[in-house]
Amino acid sequence: MATIKSVLHETRVFPPDGGFVQQANLSGMEAYRALCSEAEQDPEGFWGRLAREHILWREPFSRVLDESAHPFFKWFEDGVLNVSFNCLDRHLASQPDKVALIFEADDGRVTRCTYRDLHERVCRLANGLRSLGVASGDRIVIYMPMCIEAVVAMQACARIGVTHSVVFGGFSAKSLHERIRDAGAVAVVTADEQYRGGRTNHLKTAVDEAIALGGLETLRSVVVYRRGPGDIRWEAGRDVWWQDLVGNQEVVCEPEWVGAEHPLFTLYTSGSTGKPKGVQHSSAGYLLGSVLSMKWVFDYKPDDVFWCTADVGWVTGHSYVTYGPLAVGATQVIFEGIPTYPDAGRFWKIIQDHRVTTFYTAPTAIRSLIKNGPDRPKEYDLSSLRLLGSVGEPINPEAWMWYYTVVGQSRCPVVDTWWQTETGSHMIAPLPGAIPLKPGSCTLPLPGIAAAIVDEAGQDIENGKGGFLVIKRPFPYQARTLWGDPERFRDTYFPRELGGYYLAGDSAHRDEDGYFWIMGRADDVLNVSGHRLGTMEIESALVANPLVAEAAVVGRPDDIRGEAIVAFVVLKGERPQGEEAGRIAAELRNWVSREIGPIARPEEIRFGDNLPKTRSGKIMRRLLRTLAQGGEITQDVSTLENPAILEQLKQSAA
Ligand code: WTA
User: Fold this and answer.
1) What is the 3-state secondary structure (H, E, C) of 320-387?
2) Residue 3 in this model has a pLDDT that exceeds 70
3) CA 256, 262, 264, 266 torsion: positive or negative?
4) How do residues 144-162 score in pLDDT, each as one tens digit?
5) I want to staple 39 with a disulfide (CB 3.0 to 4.6 A). Which of 154, 448, 462, 475 is the partner?
6) How far apart are the C-alpha atoms of 610 and 619, rounded to whole Å?
7) 286, 419, 428, 441: which to mutate for ligand 1, most atoms within 8 A of CB?
């Protein structure tokens, strides 16, 4: 397989020590091996010990794991806790004045918030939400910019036992509507405005549009954090300014003590079929994963300044902005803007200004910064950095080397962390100081994670050969179900053929040292700039346009974004040519952007009289993938109903 070769060309091993970090939490390879064998010999004893050590329990649990309803596992079930208490109250006595959040806005303004402040803000909002009649068991949709209040909103939900569902601020009103409805949310928490790259997005307007689409019977309140001039449409009785809501609230709020399995949040993500699915996480198990990875993978130390660039709209922003860093009591940076505004030095300037020690970002950002200024980091003082992280897609060895040598000045380990919305936190990642690094490999599974590569029948595959990445044993921080669709959860992630293993949806292989190399998705999910998008989702959006009869969407490798979206479209009318084709393509791109969000906008649209289909009517996507890449068709096309269409679709690219 070509992918294996291209990743493997750089197999240099980077030593774990020799000037690297001094691991505070794990002393080396032997400590790693000892944890792995503890987990193998007695998984329940292992997880139980960690859960007791790392979580503050209101009531202890008596049983670690209940597997009887496989794959609907229950962990620490009779334990009682509150996640917000674990993130905030636990630090009030020891470090009330430590800065929790350093917020840098798009325009460069900086606001700081201590643990005491943050606790107070969370309590006030939690009380405010309760005053609106919101109660434990309800769902709230959060549609916020990256700002302190986004973290406050999530923590406030956790405090009162409300399950939050954060919708990325870049999603359209239509996507927002779908998610509010699916969750049966009673309230939406939003802001009037979001500022990115010097531009203003009107989030509350999108909420109004979503509500206008109708059918949101459960929704009673819209809480709006005011940042702009405030001249927005207002629906009295439903809309309430955040500032008014919290104004008279008490600064303490008794947490809602919940069972370990209480759903902390759902987060919608794309799959290969149908509409986005609401991945549902637990309270205790999820929290445990975030805390452990902060300590093991990010080697958290009390004087760290942690910066994860992810938006809270994605799982990375849940585990490594809102929950993990706060649970360990870290100081962290949060940033509303984009890496290239006002110029491509922005990230490096933030690291310099705030003395960031631990920096976590996505390969797509790294590649775009290489393109926009490979020597830029040298203009800044990056001496505070001690650890670099990568997430969201495979990092190509070239980008890894640049990150390591230019940004990390060959001093800082790069932790390439493989995980997913469904796994809650890191699964396969190097433990710096313990595990030698290889550029392009996420290295070895964390202790307790039984990762393996298998074939279609669930049989182990020998090292060096590609196959499906699975996790053989349950782990506390895995998703519990899909909101309202347990069957889809079981069918998607625990297919019968695989004998009960968790199927990640990625293909991967292991090298001779047992290191994992992720090759990409094994299903119809695209990874565009680290964001997951289902091809079916984009196709459904396209065929919802009155001009379109049929559409097929594939990915094409892209140097910066990982993958770019190419759509093959058949119109109801004549196949458009020349300028008309350009005009309709532009219209369809905007259409998809409005239907789903700008991240789903196709890079290229090609028109044909038909799509390549087998005689039984199945669209042959692999042919479309070859065409999208500009390659020659070498596959057998004898089963095609309409081979001539290939020539047409190839030419329509010109
Ligand atoms: C991909 C993001 C290679 C993978 C945390 C996975 C990666 C999907 C890596 C999950 C990595 C994430 N190396 N591929 N280090 N990290 N992926 O749910 O295909 O948005 O299945 O979670 O991203 O994306 P999700």
Assistant:
1) HHHHHHHHCCCEEEEECCCCCCCCCCHHHHHHHHHCCCEEEECHHHHHHHHHHCCCHHHHCCCCCCCE
2) no
3) negative
4) 999 999 999 999 999 999 9
5) 448
6) 10
7) 419
| Cα separation of the two ends of the chain | 29
For residues 257-261, average pLDDT: 98
Confidence of residue 453 (pLDDT cuts 50, 70, 90): very high
Cα–ligand 1 centroid distance for 197 (angstroms): 26
* Residue (of 639, 636, 614) closest to 626 by Cα position: 636
Instruction: Report yes or no on whether pTM surpasses 0.70.
Output: yes
pLDDT category at 1 given cuts 50, 70, 90 is: very low
CA 140 to CA 300: how far, in whole Å? 31
Distance between CA atoms of 286 and 520, rounded to whole angstroms? 25
How large is the average pLDDT for residues 163-175? 96
Q: Which helix (H) or strand (E) holds 315?
A: helix 315-317
Which of ligand 1's atoms lies nearest the C-alpha of 521? Answer: 19
Q: Check if the beta carbon of residue 376 is closer than 8 Å to that of residue 348.
A: yes
Residue from 527, 528, 533 to probe ligand 1 pocket by mutation (most atoms less than 8 Å from CB): 527
Query: Which ligand 1 atom minimizes the distance to the CA of 269?
Result: 18
Residue 194 CB neighbours (<10 A): 24
pLDDT of residue 141: 98
By most ligand atoms within 8 Å of CB, the mutation choice from 518, 524, 526, 533 for ligand 1 is 518
Which residues line the pocket of ligand 1, CB cutoff 6 A? 269, 314-316, 391-394, 416-421, 442, 504-506, 518, 521, 527, 532
Helix (H, G, I), strand (E, B) or coil at 483: coil
Owner of token pair 């050969």 = 465
Candidate of 442, 532, 561, 563 to mutate for ligand 1, largest count of ligand atoms within 8 Å of Cβ: 532
Residues contacting residue 154 through CB under 8 Å, at least 6 positions apart = 142, 164, 166, 265, 312, 318, 322
Three-state DSSP at 153 gives helix
DSSP conformation letters of 497-530:
GGTTPEEEEEEEEE-TT--EEEEEESSSEEEETT
Q: Quote the CA–CA distance of 625 and 619 in Å, as a whole number.
A: 12
Question: Using CA atoms in the order 600, 603, 605, 611, what is the torsion angle rounded to 10 degrees?
Answer: -70
pLDDT bin (cut points 50, 70, 90) of residue 19 is: very low
Strand order of the sheet with strand 548-558? 548-558, 562-571, 604-607
Cα(503) to centroid of ligand 1, in Å?
A: 13
Judge whether 219 and 186 are in contact, CB under 8 Å. Answer: yes
Centroid of ligand 1 to alpha carbon of 419 (angstroms):
5
For residue 500, pLDDT beyond 90: yes
Beta-bridge partner residues of 269? 277
Tokens describing residue 364: 């797509």
Q: What is the mean pLDDT of residues 267-280?
A: 87
Q: How much distance in Å is there from the Cα of 279 to the middle of ligand 1?
A: 15
Determine the distance from the C-alpha atom of residue 295 to the mean position of all C-alpha atoms in its chain, rounded to a whole number: 20
415's enclosing H/E stretch is strand 414-417
Helix axes 535-543, 578-595, angle to 10 degrees: 120
Distance CA 621, CA 637 (A): 12
Mean pLDDT on 376-381: 97
- At 451, the pLDDT band (50, 70, 90 cuts) reads very high
Atom 10 of ligand 1: nearest residue by CA position: 420
Q: Which protein residue's CA is at the shortest distance from atom 8 of ligand 1?
A: 420
- Identity (one letter) of the amino acid at 332? Q
Nearest-angstrom CA–CA distance, 281 and 355? 33
